[in-house]
Predict the 3D structure of the following.
Amino acid sequence: MGQKMVSNIKRVAVLLMVALFSYSTVSAETRPDVVERIKPVGTVVVGGQASADASAAASGAPAAPAKPVSEGEALYQAKGCGACHGPDGIKTAMPIYPKLVGLPVQYAVNQMKDIKSGARSNGQSVAMKGIVAGVTEEEMTKMAEWLAGKSSAAAPAPAPKKAKAAPAPAPKAAAAPAAKAESAPAPAPKAAAPAPAAAPAAGGDGAALYASKGCGACHGPDGNKTIMPIYPKVAGLPAQYSINQMKDIKSGARSNGQSAAMKGVVMAIDDKDLKAIAEWLATQ
Ligand code: HEC
Ligand code: HEC
């Protein structure tokens, strides 16, 4: 800083000397080198004015109204999706309704289109049909993008992109039931053990069943990270919703999209094991 000042002073001094010298010998016009060297001084002044203008413009900028919510969120609110899926897409009005936060965009858009067209008509789909009838694909995508980017109450590290203050306490709540869920299903296998010889060790342990049945191959090791954007994230879905979907894919009541990819897998799983998996998934 001090050095810069010194060099500036030196430069001015040199310019003055040159100017005086030029004045006494030849006129400034005939000394283009002098004109050229004086020029930077003028530039600095102009620069100062320019930066003053810039700061004036900058101080005006914050006055422009900032968007309070994203387009996707605004659409979600305006269309009334929250009435069933929860104001944030996390806490659903009923355990048979799906949580939407964190679903891959492409999967979510496909489902909305399928419910709109009737390709997906299982379960409670009809409840939503009238609403998506008035939603364009572009709007679906915007909402899906907003939902996918939101941090999920039950999602651990991988999903969240935008850390929100609210979801923070939730993992604690989710962690507690997880511990309970692991101890609770324990008695079930005992009761089931006599009948199915299939997976006696795994029994009611949802986590072990999920792993042994190969669900993770498509839905990710803990149901959070799907291998394809057209596959659903299954972690954190309400248990009853998951059970219904698995049963519907098994029976063929739900056959839209890529359901066939999963049908063979669920065909070999009884309702009790599906329930155990769903209950474990709900805590993930
Ligand atoms: C009247 C209740 C209701 C409303 C309102 C509603 N939905 Fe749904 N939605 C459902 C139900 C129920 C399902 C699941 C259908 C089933 O039982 O299989 C569903 C499924 C979905 C799915 C697929 C989820 C998955 O995991 O497969 C998406 C995505 C979705 N809704 C988005 C929306 C959006 C966006 C809106 C607003 C435009 C909306 N929904 C409005 C009830 C509703
Ligand atoms: C080969 C890939 C694959 C395997 C293996 C698989 N799934 Fe799926 N699963 C899917 C696809 C694809 C869908 C969605 C179908 C569609 O496109 O609408 C789905 C849907 C679901 C749903 C409904 C999700 C929702 O939001 O509606 C649940 C729950 C589910 N699977 C759980 C499981 C469980 C538990 C297992 C293991 C027993 C399993 N899946 C094995 C591909 C698979």
User: Anything to note?
Assistant: The chain is about 55% helix and 0% strand. The radius of gyration is 33 Å.
